[in-house]
Write a structure and sequence with these properties.
- By secondary structure, the chain is mainly alpha-helical.
- The protein has 2 domains: 16-82; 94-150, no CATH class.
- 44% of the residues lie in helices and 11% in strands.
- The chain has 4 helices and 4 strands, in the order αααββαββ.
- The strands form 2 sheets. A two-stranded antiparallel ribbon has the order 1-2. The chain has a two-stranded antiparallel sheet with strand order 3-4.
- The longest helix is centred in the middle third of the chain and has 27 residues, at 52-78.
- It starts with 15 loop residues before the first helix and ends with a strand.
- Mean pLDDT is 81; it is low at 146-150.
Length: 152
């Protein structure tokens, strides 16, 4: 930690700053592989595949999911929400939504969607990732006083 290191490279045309940055980025790659083993981030195992093809597909999917999670972390950080990948995924997983149905005033009942917890982080993440676009537009909701389906 407090010792000296000698970096040997075959990239003779790189400036020293780029060589040092490349060396330091190695720890980022190693951290990514550790996250592949973390069941709360991207669970690489258990792998229930036996053929080489399926193992390759499983590996590709896990690495792709990890890349997507890191891109989402960067997007959130650029918008002011600074979390680790694990924290970000936990917070996104904890976002819940409920539909409130209000009595009608001479027509169909009014439905209003809202987050289940009023946490600023949840609202910010919902806005950053535009989670509203993924909510059902015509969700089937059974009206409590009648057995008919209500649509937003």
């Amino acid at each position: 930690m407090f010792g000296k290191r000698i970096l040997v490279t075959t990239q003779n045309d790189w400036p020293i700053a780029k060589v040092v940055a490349a060396y330091r980025s190695q720890s980022d790659a190693e951290f990514g592989f550790r996250q592949l083993k973390d069941p709360h981030v991207v669970s690489f195992s258990p792998m229930n595949h036996w053929t080489e093809h399926n193992i390759r597909i499983h590996t590709f999917t896990c690495v792709l999911a990890l890349q997507a999670a890191h891109l989402m972390r960067r997007e959130a950080a650029n918008a002011g929400e600074h979390h680790s990948v694990r924290e970000l995924l936990e917070r996104l997983a904890s976002i819940g939504e409920t539909v409130m149905i209000y009595p009608s005033t001479g027509g169909r009942p009014k439905a209003r969607r809202m987050l289940t917890e009023d946490i600023e982080t949840h609202a910010n993440l919902a806005e950053i990732f535009n989670l509203n676009q993924w909510a059902p537009k015509k969700s089937s909701i059974i009206h409590p006083q009648a057995s008919k389906t209500v649509y937003d």
